Amino acid sequence: MRDKGSVEQSKGMTREELLALPAAVDLDTGNRALGLGRSKGYALAKRGEYPCKVLRLGKAYRVVTADLLDLLGLAA
Hints:
This protein is an alpha+beta fold. It has helices at 15-19, 27-34, 38-46, 65-71, and strands at 24-26, 54-57, 60-64. The protein has a 3-stranded antiparallel beta sheet. Helix 2 packs across helix 3 (38-46). The longest helix is centred in the middle third of the chain and has 9 residues, at 38-46.
């Protein structure tokens, strides 16, 4: 049960948060930036259909931040 006074954390990211990202981020961060749920994001990455470039490093997925920012219209 949620406390009435608690503040829910936003799923999206601010412009400032996006521009402060490192060169590559984990898939959960990429999903958050794109407003994708965890299951949907991982399914897209697994099928090679993620909307921007994803690197597979062992069992981990990393989203290329430059492609993410370009997709969101924030590329420098």
